[in-house]
């Protein structure tokens, strides 16, 4: 028995040691290459932030050269940060810093793309000056530094551990979080990780939010509700369980009462309850074959085979042919095959206009829809499985992280 217990501890330690060796090899390889001006600037920025924010030791990995970002990531980060800081100067309340920045309203997006294509190092001067002027101003205003708050420190510990394990390619998310702390110095520090994550998801920075820190994940899971299938909307080809928590395709179409809200084309079903306010979260085991999940607006039509996309009132994620994952925007947005989940978490924040999808087993962000909601939204489920059921998990089975500090099991 004692041997088994020790083995339980030894195996994870061996894996962690191997990952650390791989990380060091990667760092040495990167450090052999000459650093660009933008990479050196990010290192200097990390040093300055380390002086401004108390207990921000995680940034030492950046300014000592252990975590070196790709040149294009550095240039993009510099331009985005400079524009956010300029917006801050014209913003009355700190909360607006985290407002959704719609891509079509960012004049600098096209300029950034042009710069990245041409290398752009020589054009970065004005953006760098904006950032460094801001850091100098903050050091003068806060000679003793800013306290990030326990929630932020816990999140930084989590991010650092995941980076060491190789789950995060770089520590850009830590820099962004600390800049958010300084920008929102008057905010409740408990709110900052949630606001940061919401803003990153809405701007589709999947690489920065591929891993959801435990303190934010628990907050998402706290919105869990019981969701059931509505038999009156189910396609006649679907078979629902008695508790309306499971469904699969049957061998024959059933005789069912006529209803305007019943799907008669796509093999789909709506949830029995619609939502017009608040935060909601539910989890679904989807299987390996074609499926779709999301929400449908109350005015959306269910009849026929019209595309179930944003134009027809559906905000959904779909897997086609077992390997093609896409968000059904107009036109569809293809997603990397590496993001295909087996269990999906769906998070709806009605007031924030946010619908996010997660791989709950990896605790990773997949995709987020952002728009202003004005009508009731119903969960929607679709499957073509005839052997394996699509299962809506009970709300009390959501997988919270029980770690108070760094997550030991992710």
UniProtKB/TrEMBL annotation:
Pfam families per the record? PRY, SPRY
Source species, domain of life = Eukaryota
Which InterPro entries does the annotation name?
B30.2/SPRY, B30.2/SPRY_sf, Butyrophylin_SPRY, ConA-like_dom_sf, PRY, SPRY_dom, TRIM/RBCC
Start and end residues of each B30.2/SPRY domain: 207-399
Which PROSITE patterns does this UniProt record tie to the protein?
B302_SPRY
Q: What is this protein called?
A: B30.2/SPRY domain-containing protein
**What does UniProt list as this organism's lineage?**
Eukaryota, Metazoa, Chordata, Craniata, Vertebrata
């Amino acid at each position: 028995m004692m041997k088994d217990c020790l083995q339980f501890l030894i195996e994870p330690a061996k894996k962690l040691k191997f990952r650390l060796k791989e990380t060091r090899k990667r760092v040495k390889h990167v450090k052999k290459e000459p650093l660009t001006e933008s990479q050196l600037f990010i290192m200097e920025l990390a040093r300055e932030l380390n002086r401004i924010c108390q207990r921000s030791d995680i940034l030492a990995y950046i300014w000592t050269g252990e975590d070196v970002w790709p040149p294009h990531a550095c240039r993009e980060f510099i331009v985005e940060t400079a524009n956010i800081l300029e917006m801050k100067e014209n913003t009355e309340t700190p909360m607006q810093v985290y407002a959704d920045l719609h891509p079509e309203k960012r004049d600098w997006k096209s300029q950034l793309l042009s710069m990245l294509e041409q290398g752009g190092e020589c054009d970065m001067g004005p953006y760098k000056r904006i950032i460094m002027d801001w850091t100098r101003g903050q050091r003068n205003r806060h000679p003793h530094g800013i306290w990030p708050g326990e929630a932020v420190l816990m999140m930084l510990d989590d991010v650092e551990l995941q980076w060491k394990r190789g789950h995060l390619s770089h520590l850009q998310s830590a820099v962004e979080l600390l800049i958010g702390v300084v920008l929102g110095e008057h905010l409740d520090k408990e709110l900052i990780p949630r606001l940061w994550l919401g803003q990153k998801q809405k701007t589709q920075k999947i690489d920065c939010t591929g891993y959801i820190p435990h303190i934010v994940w628990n907050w998402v899971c706290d919105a869990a509700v019981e969701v059931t299938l509505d038999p009156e909307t189910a396609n006649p080809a679907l078979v629902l369980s008695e508790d309306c928590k499971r469904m699969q395709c049957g061998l024959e179409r059933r005789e069912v009462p006529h209803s305007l809200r019943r799907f008669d084309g796509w093999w789909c079903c709506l949830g029995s309850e619609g939502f017009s306010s608040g935060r909601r979260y539910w989890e679904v085991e989807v299987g390996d074959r074609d499926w779709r999940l999301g929400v449908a607006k109350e005015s959306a039509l269910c009849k026929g085979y019209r595309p179930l996309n944003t134009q027809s009132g559906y905000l959904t994620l779909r897997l086609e042919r077992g390997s093609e994952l896409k968000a059904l925007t107009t036109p569809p947005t293809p997603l990397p095959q590496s993001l295909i989940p087996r269990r999906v978490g769906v998070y709806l924040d009605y007031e924030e206009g946010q619908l996010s999808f997660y791989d709950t087993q990896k605790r990773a962000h997949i995709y987020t829809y952002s728009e202003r909601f004005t009508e009731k939204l119903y969960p929607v489920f679709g499957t073509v499985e005839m052997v394996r059921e699509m299962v809506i998990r009970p709300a009390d089975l959501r997988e919270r992280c029980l770690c108070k500090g760094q997550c030991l099991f992710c």
